[in-house]
């Protein structure tokens, strides 16, 4: 009687409901866990032929082929190792391009295959279904434990940047690496965003011609916030002391320029910006040289392409 | 077109009264009515409808264990095993140690692959007082899933308790689920002998014949389904699918090298 009167939901949950997918996934995970536990039980009872992996098996899989070499599978080991290294080198050489991504993907596949081979050699059951399942787990583990942290770190320390247009000393298509984790310091060559600015360059007549400046540029930080800078005839004085720092293209600078760097700004003379030359007014130079700290994207430290000019950027 | 066809007038009083009466009748119907409807649908293989009517019966009387069991069984028939397992667990919280609910849970667990738990639940169901066919069916299913040969004994036990034809069809369904089509066909033939006028027996037999790669026999069986029930959607769909398969090049090649 109590039950008949109680407020009970009498409609069962359905597979198409919101929780249906979750129930299926949890069921799948449960079944994997159950099977592993059953296998463990069989292994303990000696009913399943399984040997514990040799010591160091796990960390050796960080480099593909190393585990194979350890147990004397030389051909497999060297094949995995060399092919992986070749593709890693290519992916680094072509970093920041579509080819680079493809090479990295192939390197990851080789790594995953090598690790899967190790796992399957040790696994008590080697059916196709187990192999497919193990390949997913191994790939996910490799990606989560090794590749994701490395890619995450690299995406801050070595962001590849391809030059869309020629900008002294770089040419269109050149690729440089940018480190966004390094705090900006005077003397560093950095990638920064130019302040959006227009300049009227009309000399005479009624028709006005404007130069519009915007976009990302690469140049050297000359001074930090609060410093007083005097540029006079190709020599630089910072806070009254002469300095060896030079913008990347000193010839483009005006004859004399005096600037005091406000707080949260850096002084970067935009000498690599096309059409910035000594003819432009000094006020405009000052405006374009004071870059807010937030507009400095990171330090440019290495050029990866073209191959003929690989090396550090100075 | 007549000039006043699209004008809206107040609905006639009679229609309103008829709707009210229908609504009253609907609320007046007792749980026995909904259970009968659920059973009718189940016997026709309309499991979705049957599930709905079991729920309607429970709306009237929540203490109806047969309706709870029916819901779980229908969820299993519809292939919604995690839901069936969840629902049987909920029902068992209300009716602890009910043999049929335990058997339903065992069957649901078996379908989700948890044979160990299913076996335990099944043993518990058979240990309860009273005797019903379903725990033996569930036990038979666990045996089939475990590939143990004594499942026929369990199913025979169940048939000895419940001699109605739907049980045979449901046992055939279990065999079909575990790809034991030959054994399923045997049970289907028994069902057909018992109730040749029931479309579900024929349809399930057709499915067994299809599984055994006997397209000629299956076609005949599905046509028999349509003779009994000319609008049987599943039989029609199966025939259509067979026609489509045979119209492909691969289907023609297969047909050339087949006896049946």
Structural account:
The complex is a heterodimer of chains A (314) and B (260). Chain A is of the alpha+beta class. Chain A is built from eight helices and 14 strands. In chain A, strands 1, 2, 3, 6, 13 and 14 form a six-stranded antiparallel beta sheet that branches. The longest helix of chain A is centred in the middle third of the chain and has 30 residues. The model of chain A has no long low-confidence stretch (mean pLDDT 86). With 260 residues, chain B is mainly α. Chain B has 15 helices and no strands. The longest helix of chain B has 16 residues. In chain B, helix 5 packs antiparallel against helix 6, helix 8 packs antiparallel against helix 9 and helix 11 packs antiparallel against helix 12. Chains A and B meet through helix 2 of A and helix 3, helix 4 and helix 5 of B.
Provide the residue-averaged pLDDT of chain A.
Answer: 86
Shape of chain A: elongated
Helix content of chain B: over 70%
Rg result of chain A: 31 Å
Helix segment tally of chain B: 15
Task: List the chains of the largest interface with their residue counts.
Answer: A-B, 18 and 24 residues
Q: How far from one another are the termini of chain A?
A: 88 Å
**Sequence of secondary-structure elements of chain A:** HHHHHHHEEEEEEEEEEEHEEE
H and E order of chain B: HHHHHHHHHHHHHHH
User: How much of the polypeptide of chain B forms β-strand, as a percent range?
Assistant: under 5%
**Strand runs of chain A, count:** 14
Which strand-content bin applies to the residues of chain A?
A: 15-25%
Radius of gyration of chain B: 22 Å
Mean pLDDT of chain B: 88
Main pleated-sheet profile of chain B: none
Taking pLDDT < 50 over at least 5 consecutive residues as the criterion, the unreliable ranges of chain B are none
Question: Any idea what the shape of chain B is?
Answer: globular
Secondary structure class of chain B reads mainly alpha
Instruction: Outline the biggest β-sheet of chain A.
Output: 6 strands, antiparallel
């Amino acid at each position: 009687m109590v039950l008949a009167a109680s407020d009970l939901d009498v409609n069962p949950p359905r597979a198409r409901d919101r929780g249906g997918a979750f129930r299926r996934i949890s069921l799948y995970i449960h079944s994997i866990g159950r099977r592993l536990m059953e296998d463990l039980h069989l292994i303990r009872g000696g009913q399943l032929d399984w040997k514990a992996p040799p010591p160091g098996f796990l960390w050796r899989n960080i480099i593909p082929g190393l585990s194979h070499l350890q147990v004397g599978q030389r051909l497999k080991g060297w094949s995995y190792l060399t092919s992986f290294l070749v593709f890693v080198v290519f992916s680094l050489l072509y970093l920041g391009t579509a080819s680079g991504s493809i090479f990295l993907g192939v390197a990851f596949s080789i790594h995953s295959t090598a690790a899967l081979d190790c796992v399957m050699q040790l696994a008590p059951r080697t059916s196709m279904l187990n192999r497919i399942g193990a390949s997913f787990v191994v790939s996910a583990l490799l990606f989560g434990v090794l590749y994701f942290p490395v890619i995450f770190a690299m995406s801050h320390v070595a962001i590849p940047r391809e030059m869309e247009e020629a900008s002294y000393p770089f040419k269109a298509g050149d690729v440089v690496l940018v480190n966004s984790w390094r705090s900006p310091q005077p003397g560093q060559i950095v990638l920064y965003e130019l302040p959006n600015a227009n300049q009227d360059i009309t000399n005479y007549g009624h028709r006005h011609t404007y130069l519009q400046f915007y976009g990302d540029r690469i140049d050297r930080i000359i001074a930090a916030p609060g410093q007083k800078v005097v540029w006079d005839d190709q020599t630089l004085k910072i806070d009254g002391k002469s300095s060896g720092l030079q913008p990347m293209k000193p010839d483009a600078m005006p004859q004399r320029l005096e600037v005091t760097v406000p707080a949260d700004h850096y002084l970067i003379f935009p000498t690599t910006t096309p059409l910035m030359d000594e003819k432009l007014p000094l006020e405009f130079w000052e405006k374009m040289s004071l870059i807010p700290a937030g507009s400095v994207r990171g330090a440019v430290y290495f050029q990866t392409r073209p191959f003929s000019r690989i090396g550090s950027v100075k | 077109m007549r000039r006043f066809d699209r004008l809206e007038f107040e609905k006639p009083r009679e229609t309103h009264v008829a709707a009210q009466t229908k609504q009253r009748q609907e609320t007046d119907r007792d749980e026995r009515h909904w259970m009968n409807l659920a059973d009718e649908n189940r016997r026709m293989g309309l499991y979705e409808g049957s599930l709905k009517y079991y729920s309607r019966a429970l709306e009237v009387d929540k203490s109806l264990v047969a309706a709870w069991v029916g819901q779980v069984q229908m969820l299993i028939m519809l292939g919604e095993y995690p839901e069936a397992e969840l629902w049987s667990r909920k029902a068992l919280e209300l009716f602890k140690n009910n043999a049929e609910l335990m058997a339903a849970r065992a069957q649901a667990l078996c379908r989700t692959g948890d044979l160990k738990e299913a076996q335990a639940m099944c043993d518990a169901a058979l240990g309860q007082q009273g005797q019903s066919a379903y725990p033996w069916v569930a036990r038979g299913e666990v045996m089939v899933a475990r590939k143990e040969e004594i499942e026929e004994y369990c199913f025979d036990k169940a048939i000895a308790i419940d001699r109605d034809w739907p049980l045979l069809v449901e046992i055939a369904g279990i065999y079909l689920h575990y790809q034991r089509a030959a054994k399923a066909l045997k049970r289907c033939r028994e069902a057909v002998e018992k109730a040749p006028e029931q479309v579900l027996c024929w349809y399930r037999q057709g499915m067994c014949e299809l599984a055994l790669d006997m397209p000629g026999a299956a076609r005949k069986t599905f046509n028999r389904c349509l003779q009994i029930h000319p609008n049987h959607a599943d039989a029609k769909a199966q025939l259509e699918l067979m026609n489509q398969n045979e119209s492909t090049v691969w289907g023609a090649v297969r047909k050339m090298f087949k006896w049946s």
